[in-house]
Amino acid sequence: MQVTETLAEGLKHEFKVSVPASDLDAKAGAKLVDLKDKVKLNGFRPGKVPVSHLKKVYGRSVMAETIDQTIRDTNTQIFTDRGFRLATEPKITMPTETKEVEELLAGKTDLTYTVAIEVVPTIQLADFKTFSVEKPVVEVTDAEVDEAIKRIADQNRPYAAKAEGAKAETGDRVTISFKGSIDGVPFDGGTGEGIPVVIGAGQFIPGFEEQLVGIGTGETRTLKVSFPKNYASEKLAGQPAEFETTATLIEAPGETKVDDEFAKTLGLESIDKLKEAARERLVAEFAGATRQRVKRALLDRLDDSHKFEAPPSLIEEEFNLMWNSIKAEMESSGKTFADEDTTEEAAKEEYKKIADRRVRLGLVLSEIGEKNKITVTDDEVGRAVIERARSMPGREKEVWDYYRSNANALAQLRAPIYEDKVVDFILELANVTEKKISREDLFKDEDEKSAA
């Protein structure tokens, strides 16, 4: 076997490989001898079929298997000997001329092919003990607990029918039936019967609820609205529509007395238990936001500390995924790059930078996990599947079966678990300091351009 490196350019390498026909013939012959005791041919006793006859019957298929196995074994040896970690699958170029292929399968010519690869660079990891990370801390105040309970009370407030002849006002709940049309033609999903609408709650498309102000029980109005440009249905997005709407019941909101009895309607023993539950929910909400802030800061630090050339093909793949998503979103919303105060060329450059960052961080996290033997157990993935199933009541079995039969879906669940475990490992080594901040500061909008 002869291996010649024909290209060594950055992370790209290419090799020309030649395997003598005699080597292939010997390997194919060994396969035929092994096949002798496994096949049954008419006219021959088991195990007594001459190898020469087997070669006539199975020679081409056995040689094809031999060539395939030889290429895989040879490539593995090439990459292992040079310490290469592949970024993508090798690209193999074989003879394509009919005469060459026939001679190769007949064992009359050497196997000659080229293999092109792209490798993962050697990554020199930083000393994580030198990292300083600030962890925001937000205390849950009594006022925030009271505010949360008020929101719960508002969502569960009672409604009572208004007096005969009364008109609907903002805040009232109006039960309606409607038929929607575009240019006089009804559309799918445009009809409803007995639908309760709280005026001002923003449940319906913009402009719909406001036109219910002043309507009376039994009254029919034609409401004219336009679907938002980013509406979920592409057929309806941006379209003007009319809804022939009849009010069948108008109810005014009542006051909810927040006491033990109210707590019991929510399945809790007392108002104190309701306050405890509200506080726990806020604590969990703040903890989740804090985790995201700390993780983002840590990823920024990893990005700054690990500058290297990432495999171009991986960057291109990541960019294409993002770019296709961006284009689809803009088309569905009717937006242009000018609306975002940029150009397509500038946007592409920005997303290429983000793709490069994501790929490099992915490789760094993978290197950290590999060197420190960080793994994700099947139990951890199983718990993630259970959580996903619980989030879709009534479809638990469907979700469970989906993940059990879909390896790629399981891998998508495993990836964030792995990433979080690596992040936790780094945080154990880093110097983490706490800083008290307000809830507003914790949730304020941040520049997401550098987010991984």
From TrEMBL:
Subcellular location: Cytoplasm
Superkingdom in the source lineage: Bacteria
Keywords: Cell cycle, Cell division, Chaperone, Cytoplasm, Isomerase, Rotamase
Pfam families, A to Z: FKBP_C, Trigger_C, Trigger_N
PPIase FKBP-type domain: residues covered: 171-250
Enzyme class: isomerase
Main location, first listed in the record: cytoplasm
Keyword Cytoplasm: yes
This enzyme's EC code(s): 5.2.1.8
Reaction catalysed by this enzyme: [protein]-peptidylproline (omega=180) = [protein]-peptidylproline (omega=0)
Gene3D superfamilies from the UniProt entry: 3.10.50.40, Trigger factor ribosome-binding domain, Trigger factor, C-terminal domain
Keyword flag Chaperone: yes
Protein family: Belongs to the FKBP-type PPIase family. Tig subfamily.
Notes on the domains: Consists of 3 domains; the N-terminus binds the ribosome, the middle domain has PPIase activity, while the C-terminus has intrinsic chaperone activity on its own.
Record function comment: Involved in protein export. Acts as a chaperone by maintaining the newly synthesized protein in an open conformation. Functions as a peptidyl-prolyl cis-trans isomerase.
Name of the molecule in the record: Trigger factor
Organism: Bradyrhizobium algeriense
